[in-house]
Write a structure and sequence with these properties.
This protein has 143 residues and is an all-alpha fold. The protein has one domain: Helix Hairpins, CATH 1.10.287. It contains two helices and no strands. The two termini are 56 Å apart.
Length: 143
């Protein structure tokens, strides 16, 4: 009965590993999206600056850029914070996955040890039977 319980525990541990793996994929996808958003916000600032510093740009374009720049920097700061949070969540998900894997491996090793112990016990019993057979008196053949 204990063997069946360990197999149930192993199945549950493997399900946990699968769930943690799915969570890690989700968190890494969010971190990737946050990195893209950060790059886009930085690229927007660069594009706006390039437009404002063109020789053909008039004073109104430069003033508009100056008025818009704090918003652009805020967008970069928000994107940066979102990326940091997403990376932290991905790191936590990775740690949970590692713990789940270690837990599943521990149950697998326990099952292997129990199987090996059962195998050793069976071999000892077989050897005991062979020893008993070897100690029995042999019938003598009469010539």
């Amino acid at each position: 009965m204990a063997k069946d319980k360990l197999h149930i525990v192993l199945r549950l541990r493997r399900q946990e590993v699968d769930a943690c793996r799915a969570e890690l994929v989700l968190r890494e996808t969010r971190a990737h999206a946050a990195a893209i958003a950060l790059h886009e916000a930085e690229d927007t600032i660069q594009a706006e600056m390039a437009a404002a510093t063109r020789l053909s740009a008039d004073d109104a374009a430069v003033e508009a850029f100056g008025a818009w720049l704090p918003k652009g920097r805020n967008a970069v700061a928000r994107a940066n914070a979102t990326l940091a949070r997403a990376q932290d969540e991905a790191a936590q998900a990775r740690a949970h996955l590692n713990l789940a894997r270690a837990s599943a491996e521990a149950v697998e090793k326990l099952l292997e040890k129990k199987a090996e112990a059962a195998n050793q016990e069976a071999l000892r019993k077989q050897q005991h039977v062979l020893d008993e057979i070897g100690q029995r008196p042999r019938p003598r053949l009469v010539d």
